[in-house]
Amino acid sequence: MRKLTYETVFTEYLPDEIPAEYVELIEEAKRQTQKAYAIYSNFQVGAALLLENGKIIGGNNQENAASPSGICAERTAVFYANSQYPDVPIKAIAIAAYTNSDFISSPISPCGSCRQVLLETENRYGKDIQLILYGKKRIYVLNKVRQLLPFSFDGNSLERK
Predict the structure, then answer these.
(1) What pLDDT score does 160 carry?
(2) Dihedrals φ, ψ of 11, to 5°?
(3) Is 74 part of the annotated catalytic residue set?
(4) In the structure, what pLDDT confidence band is assigned to residue 62 with cuts at 50, 70 and 90?
(5) Which of 17, 21, 52, 74 is catalytic?
(6) Higher confidence at residue 150 or residue 111?
């Protein structure tokens, strides 16, 4: 028997340290929170994708009384990007959340379903997607989605006959 360790390395920035390359994407994710339809949870999430062609795609959570019929901000943005730009990889995604009349202090990370969709998109294009997780007091940056899903499920892990 062996005990193994898996570590995730990420960068933490304070608000005044945000690299210029992330500012526009974070600001779009924050704007997207204001377009969310979150009347049940009052937890508005916005996402902004940077595509390899330079386009920025926004998305926000859309709730529904018949839960779980709603959809998260990350999947809204990814599915739109994949449907409109099917041959263009995603370089980065910024995620922000707003509740109780303010942005949250600490970053949030994607839910399990969104992680799986982001990983599938990473695998689909064979390119890492950088994650920028916004919080008012700190911002986390991860270099790839797989860092959130070290023991992920993908079609390559199935034994093929």
Answers:
(1) 37
(2) -105, 135
(3) yes
(4) very high
(5) 74
(6) 111
SS3 125: helix
Domains within the chain, CATH numbers bracketed:
11-147 (3.40.140.10)
Dihedral, CA atoms, 19, 99, 83, 157, nearest 10 degrees?
80
Buried b or exposed e, range 78-96, using 16+ CB within 10 angstroms: beebbeebeebbbbbbbbb
Structure confidence at residue 150 as a pLDDT band (50, 70, 90): confident
Nearest to 61 by CA among 53, 51, 70, 72: 72
